[in-house]
Amino acid sequence: MKKLLLIIVLIIVALLVAVYFSMDILIKEAVQKYVPPITKTDIQVSSVHTSFFDGEFKVKGLAIGNPSGFSTPNAFTLGEIEVSMSMKSLFSDVIRIQKIKIDKAVATVEISKSGTNIGAINKNINDYLKNHQSADQPKPTADKESKKTKKVVI
Fold it and tell me: Are residues 39 and 47 in contact, defined by beta-carbon separation less than 8 angstroms?
């Protein structure tokens, strides 16, 4: 019985280690798979690096394509974004972000007869959210005592 329990624990630990070391690939693939149906644009990411223990997150080579009907290839490109934060602050009332670095961000606003590319992406996101909100989700209340908000310090 002890041997079986030890084997199960070792399998669970091995799975957790495998997920931790493949997290960057999983995030990259998830962004490229699940965001395009929301924005109705192509999404490309060159690389993702996460270090949960150090509180670091980095994305390189992000490109958000334009919706159909626009001639330029991308609405937004980003060379790199890096965020560094105190992980233990997630459990406090104040979340502390030590660094936000944005490099080579380019937004292209294109105007057509139907509006702008940025407006079209925004409309696509809002349409998706309206169509995918659960009917059983509770409505937000205005009762400030029931909500405890966190503050963010950058």
Answer: no
| Predicted TM-score of the model (pTM) | 0.73
Rounded to 5 degrees, φ, ψ at 108 are: -115, 115
- Which residues have a Cβ under 8 Å from the Cβ of 54 and sit 6 or more positions away? 84, 87
Per-residue pLDDT of 90-104, as tens digits, reads 888 888 899 999 999
Return all residues near 58 (Cβ < 8 A) that are at least 6 apart. 47, 48, 49, 50, 80, 81, 82, 83
Of 85, 86, 81, 50, which is closest to residue 64 (Cα–Cα)?
Answer: 81
Percent of the chain with pLDDT over 90: 53
Token pair, residue 128, equals: 């998706």
